[in-house]
Every structure is written in C-alpha cells, then in structure tokens.
C-alpha cells in the first residue's frame, strides 16, 4: 500500500484515539471503590483539622494505583483550596533537590531556582508558605522503588511530616506507591516510625473486570460495531494471560490501526492476530535484553527445538557449555520462569531434575526472530 494512503486514508475507526493513550484518565473508573474509599479515609482527617493518615499503596503493575491517586487528588483539589496535593513521579524526580523543587512548585506556585538554594532553605520556604497560607499538604510518591537506592527516603518523609509538629495549622501526609512487594520490606527498613502507614491493596483484575474495562475503552474510543464481542474476548484472554491491563488497551489501539491501514471498517481476526504477534515480539525482545550472558545461554539451549525438555538433560548440556553448577542452573531457571519466558512443570516422577519439565512459553520461531 502507498505510504500516503496509509497515513492519510480518510476513513477512521477511532472516535477518540486518546482513549488508548497510557496516561488517559478514564471517566469510568470501576472496581476500585474500596481503594478509593481507603484513600478518602486517609485524607479526610485534614478537613477535621487533624493529620491525614499516611498510606502505602501496593499492587502489581496496571492495577490502577496511579489512576486512583490522580482521581482522588482531582476531587480534593476541585473542592478544597486549602489543601495542596503534590503528585511525584519518582522515575522523573529522583533526587532530593528535584523532589523538594516539585513540592515547592505545587505549594508556592513557581519553580525554585535550578540550583543555589540549599535543601534546608527550600524546606523552610515550603513550610513557611504552608503556614502563612494555612495550607495542608499531601505528597504522593509514585513508583517510590525508584528512590530507594538513590536518596534517603527517611529524610524526605521525616522532613515532610515534622511540619505537623512545628506548625499547628498545617497538616501534612505522605502516600507511597509501590508495585513490587520486595520494596515493601525495603521501605520498612529505610523509614522509621514517623511514617507508620496504613496499607491500601490493589489486587489484580479478574477476567470479567478486564473485559468490562476494555469494553468501556472500546465504547468511548471506537465508533459502534468496530470490534465484535468474540474478538474482545480474545484480547481479554491475552491480557489476562499477560497479567497486564496495559497490554489489552494497547492491543485495541494497534489492532484498530492495522484494520484502518488495511482499509477495513472493522477489526477482524487477522488484525488482532497481527497486533498480538507484534506485542509478543516487543515484550520478548525487552525481556531478552535484560538477561545476562549465562541466562541467554540457557535460553538458547531451551530454544534449540520445539519440544518439552527434561531439566536434568538440560542441566547436562548447560553444564557442558558453561561449566556452571546445578545451583546456578536452578536459580537461572527460576528467573526465566519469573520473567514468564518458560514454564516449569512438575511431573511428580523421577528424582531431582528428572521430575521437572521445561516448557518454552514462546515459539522457537519467535525467539529466533530476536537474533540470539
Ligand atoms: N479500573 C479501571 N478502569 C479503567 N481503566 C483502568 C482501571 N484500572 C487501570 N486502568 C487503566 O490501566 C492503565 C494502567 O493503570 P495505572 O497506570 O493506574 O496502573 P498502576 O497500578 O499505576 O500501574 P504501575 O504499577 O505499572 O504504575 C491505565 O491506562 C489506566 O487508565
Ligand atoms: Mg503507576
């Protein structure tokens, strides 16, 4: 097809393409009533002139944590002008100065100088402003795991929360958002009792919940009848398997684009298949990129042919190639399973390695396409 035709073809299936953007804030936000209630309960004391409850917000990827925080902040800021809600994306702001600059911007209304102010001074300006304007402050640290190795999180929390002691009229609270349980304990070790948070859990979505959320995107993003219930079922299935709601939202967008560039007015089976194939190869490439040379060696051995392997035989080959011991082999297998590159099945027969079978979750062809 001519490039111009692809780019500028008149027909579109999309009523609103933004609906499929990853930072789109959905107007319908279902299945998270308990969590939104938990957040509201944590914030509410501010309105009764008392301290907010600090909270840890915990859940796997794409379970709606960021969305919940943004929604609740929107509600609070829309109704109260004496509460400042400061959302910090810790992937972007991961230095002490960067974090306090962001808080400064939200509280004072302008950015502080890029450098030149000491942290103590920055803190003082923020605290004085809160006091002068009788403002309360809630700071949400999203994806705080990105901070834990970089800065002294305890110092940040301590600084923010000691405002409560220093000024009667000013109330401050901290939310920490985490997607990895491992960091829950790390956070506990890093941060002492000033924080003592409540926990708000975001469990994974069920199949039906994923279907409903995706259906909602379909209704607001596509024109009517662009995708059938059966195809939406296929996409839901794939999303549920992947454990990541973003996969489904992205598949809808990609399948819609493929249908459109093929001049089709509907999304058809082959468009979904192509979108899924693209998604698999993208994810696979990302996972493979993160592997060490020994881990890659094991994947290469597993991907030699399309058959179920016995762990013992696999270890013998691995050991011949790398000289590495059984213990190391096992820990690599665990990692590959964690990355969802392989499944390990226990047959219950045989001893040690003999009782386990290794199954590649991708086709050998998919893996080979990544040029190992
Ligand atoms: N209940 C829901 N209803 C509608 N859309 C949702 C819902 N939950 C999540 N989403 C959508 O799924 C995507 C991921 O959600 P979000 O960014 O809030 O997840 P998260 O828990 O912060 O993930 P991560 O841990 O990866 O940061 C977003 O596009 C969001 O709009
Ligand atoms: Mg998030």
List the helices and strands and how they pair.
Blueprint: H1 3-8, H2 33-43, E1 55-59, H3 65-79, E2 83-89, H4 96-108, H5 119-132, E3 136-142, H6 145-148, H7 153-166, E4 172-178, H8 181-190, E5 198-202, H9 207-221, H10 229-242, H11 245-261, H12 269-289, H13 293-302, E6 309-310, H14 311-322, H15 326-338, E7 342-346, E8 356-360, H16 364-369
Parallel strand pairs: 1-4, 1-5, 2-3, 3-4
Antiparallel strand pairs: 6-8, 7-8
Helix pairs in contact: 4-5, 9-10, 9-11, 10-11, 11-12, 13-14, 13-15
Structural notes for this entry:
- A five-stranded parallel beta sheet has the order 2-3-4-1-5, sandwiched between helices.
- The mean pLDDT is 89.
- By secondary structure, the chain is α/β, with parallel strands linked by helices.
- It folds into three domains: 3-17 and 206-286, Helicase, Ruva Protein, domain 3 (Orthogonal Bundle); 33-202, Rossmann fold, CATH 3.40.50.300; 290-369, Orthogonal Bundle (Arc Repressor Mutant, subunit A).
- It has 16 helices and eight strands.
- The protein has helices spanning 3-8, 33-43, 65-79, 96-108, 119-132, 145-148, 153-166, 181-190, 207-221, 229-242, 245-261, 269-289, 293-302, 311-322, 326-338, 364-369, and strands at 55-59, 83-89, 136-142, 172-178, 198-202, 309-310, 342-346, 356-360.
- Helix content is 52%, strand content 12%.
- Helix 10 (229-242) crosses helix 11, helix 11 (245-261) packs across helix 12 (269-289) and helix 13 (293-302) packs across helix 15.
- Magnesium ion binds at residues 65-66, 142.
């Amino acid at each position: 097809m001519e490039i111009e035709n692809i780019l500028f073809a008149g027909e579109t299936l999309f009523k609103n393409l933004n609906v499929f953007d990853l930072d789109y804030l959905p107007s319908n936000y279902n299945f998270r009533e308990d969590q939104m209630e938990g957040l509201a309960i944590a914030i509410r004391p501010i309105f009764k002139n008392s301290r907010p409850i600090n909270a840890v917000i915990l859940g796997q990827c794409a379970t709606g944590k960021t969305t919940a925080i943004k929604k609740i902040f929107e509600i609070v800021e829309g109704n109260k002008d004496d509460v400042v809600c400061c959302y910090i994306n810790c992937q972007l702001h991961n230095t002490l100065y960067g974090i306090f600059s962001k808080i400064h911007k939200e509280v004072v209304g302008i950015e502080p100088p890029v450098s030149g102010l000491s942290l103590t001074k920055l803190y003082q300006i923020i605290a004085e402003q809160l006091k002068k304007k009788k403002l309360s402050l809630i700071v949400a640290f999203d994806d705080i795991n990105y901070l834990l190795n970089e800065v002294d999180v305890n110092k940040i929390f301590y600084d923010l929360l000691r405002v409560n002691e220093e000024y009667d009229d000013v109330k401050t609270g901290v939310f920490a958002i985490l997607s990895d349980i491992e960091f829950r304990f790390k956070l506990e070790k890093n941060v002492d009792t000033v924080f003592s948070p409540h926990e708000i859990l975001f469990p994974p979505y069920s199949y039906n919940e994923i279907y409903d959320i995706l259906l909602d995107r379909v209704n607001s993003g596509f024109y009517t009848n662009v995708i059938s219930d059966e195809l939406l079922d296929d996409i839901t299935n794939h999303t549920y398997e992947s454990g990541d709601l973003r996969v489904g939202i992205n598949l809808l967008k990609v399948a819609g684009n493929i249908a459109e560039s093929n001049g089709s007015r509907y999304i058809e089976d082959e468009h979904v298949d192509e979108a899924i194939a693209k998604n698999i190869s993208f994810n696979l490439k990302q996972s493979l990129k993160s592997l060490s040379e020994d881990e890659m060696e094991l994947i290469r051995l597993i991907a030699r042919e399309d058959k179920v392997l016995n762990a013992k035989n696999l270890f013998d080959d691995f050991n011949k190639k790398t000289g590495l011991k059984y213990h190391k082999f096992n820990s690599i297998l665990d990692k590959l399973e964690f990355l969802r590159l392989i499944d390990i099945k226990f047959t219950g027969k045989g001893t040690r390695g003999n009782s386990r079978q290794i199954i590649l979750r991708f086709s050998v062809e998919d893996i080979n396409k990544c040029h190992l």
